[in-house]
Amino acid sequence: MTYIEDSSALTGRQARVEDYLALLKPRVMSLVVFTAFVGLVLAPGNLNPVLAVIAVFCVAVAAGASGALNMWFDADIDAIMSRTANRPIPRGRVSREEALAFGLFLAVASVALMGLATNWAAAALLAFTIFFYVVIYTMWLKRSTPQNIVIGGAAGAFPPMVGWAAVTGTVSLESVIMFAIIFLWTPPHFWALALYKQGDYGAAGVPMMPNVVGESSTRNQIMAYSVILAVIAMAPLATGFAGPIYGIVAGGTGLAFVWYALRLRQASDGAEMRRRARALFRYSLSYLFVVFMALLVDRVATQMLGGML
Fold it and tell me: Is residue 309 a contact partner of residue 279, using CB atoms and an 8 Å limit?
């Protein structure tokens, strides 16, 4: 199957602007930006508010660049999968060449601006994040191994480290913990999606875990990762990086994650499995936001309490 690439499909300036915005994967970008913002706020030290805004903006642009380059490379399989068939390139609203040029420009601009506004350590980490997502994950792992999400998930876990480095010029245990939470969340999140979309992945030739090792093994691995995630999510409390507010939220959301995974593992037939996989996927969409918001609220509450004493 081939995808449409017809510039005549462009219907005016407004549609073209919307299509370029779609290349940025704004829904994915929003979570990336938020976790980077949390890393920046929690980092020790001070960063000029204007420079902090610029740093978060650079992360957003870099995430958008990664999305555009991913769509450029994956245009062939995007046209096959129902979840991605309406993206701008398969629909012929943006050409692959335009998406490539757009993505490369945004990537270079975001890294350069990050280096000039904050420090080159943060810029280097941001550049590596883009490289990891586009080259290591999209071009290499995604089509070659069922571990694509496990290893490639690191790309989505770097943003809080980038935010931390923008302030401190380095990384630390705290930023590594935030990285680990996102890294461990990624496999159960995407494998739940793959369980009820495995027909799409099979048709596109993407070796997602359910298509390669089967549904039962995938559900067992989702269960294992969910338990490990729930434990690691308590690390900020255990290391003193966060306080009781975070501990209560992280403990509750972690137990809920394990409960959803357990229900999925115990599903008795294919239809029930797909329903429960969809339920876990939907829950996982909000999980990271809630956990990172809890880190932020806990820090603000601690500072306010400290100021009152």
Answer: no
